[in-house]
Amino acid sequence: xxxxxxxxxDQILCASLKEFxxxxxxxxxxxxxxTEVFDLTFTQKYDLYILDINVPDVDGFDVLRELxxxxxxxxxxxxxxxxxxxxxxxxxxxxxxxxxxxxxxxEELVIRIKSKYxxxxxxxxxxDLCYNPYMKTVEKNTQLIALGEVQQNLLHALMMNQNKIxxxxxxxxxxxxxxxxxxxxxxxxxxxxxxxxxxxxxGQGYMIEKV
Length: 211
Description:
The protein is an alpha/beta fold. It has two domains: 3-116, 3-Layer(aba) Sandwich (Rossmann fold); 124-207, Orthogonal Bundle (Arc Repressor Mutant, subunit A). The protein has eight helices and twelve strands. It has a five-stranded parallel sheet with strand order 2-1-3-4-5, with helices on both faces. The two termini are 17 Å apart.
């Protein structure tokens, strides 16, 4: 599973991006100051860095420069409000692979991650199911199973968060006409179609437990 280090000093934006990325199945560690990046990368290996530039202590430019000087080859995306060509050129010269200007839609970030950095064969398994989060396809005993858009989105959210409760209000965003009853009905259909166990955590949401 892809592991991301996110550097962003705006704590509300940081929490929002972390939640969005985790719903897509990524493992996300966060840093709010440049120096925290060095502490985290000293003990852990990441598949991708997402770096703001204007952060306390050490800015995003110097963070990436020091990592590259130390031989770190991890790809990096800058997310920043800086839009002048000099800043963009500087970021790429240091070694950034991509550059997204704030404000941006989190879905754009995910699209870029999937298109550039995520392996297409990175599948998630549950019993006899094989789920490909990149292609959003599901196979049962090697047979491709067709799902409608709603059930596909529900399965995606649950499979990407195995052993975690996915809150009901989050899952209801997958529905055309959101309601608690509609969610129960669609979860039941998904369970029956795939013959899987989806636990209802009363008052919270649903989850698939790893086996």
